[in-house]
Amino acid sequence: MERNVYLYILVMAAVTYAIRMLPLVLIRREITNRFIRSFLYYVPYVTLAVMTFPAILSETGSVWSAWAALLTGALLAFRGKSLLQVSVSACLMVFVLELFLV
């Protein structure tokens, strides 16, 4: 079983390298398709949201404080507040609600 660990690491390294190298090799000219450019533009934001959203709802002591913080953060972000203001407000919302709910 110990010998297989090195094989697993080698396969993971090859797959990671292939994922990063193949677009550079296969796509040599600028992408002009508007749909593909727009899709690639939003991939990092969607990936961050998909990784963050479940943690927002599951890391507090109460689901109510999680939803209140999510709505507070979304509202402040929609109104154009800075990232610092949004995150501090969401954290304060969880803190205050956890004081009263638990």
Could you explain the architecture of this structure?
This protein has 102 residues and is mainly alpha-helical. The chain is 83% helix and 0% strand. α3 runs antiparallel to α4. The longest helix is centred in the first third of the chain and has 25 residues. The chain is flat, with a radius of gyration of 21 Å.
Total strand segments: 0
Shape: flat
Coarse structural class? mainly alpha
The helical percent reads over 70%
- Beta percentage is under 5%
Characterize this entry briefly.
This protein has 102 residues and is mainly alpha-helical.
Which terms would index this structure?
mainly alpha; flat
Topology:
Layout: H1 2-26, H2 34-58, H3 63-78, H4 83-101
Helix pairs in contact: 3-4
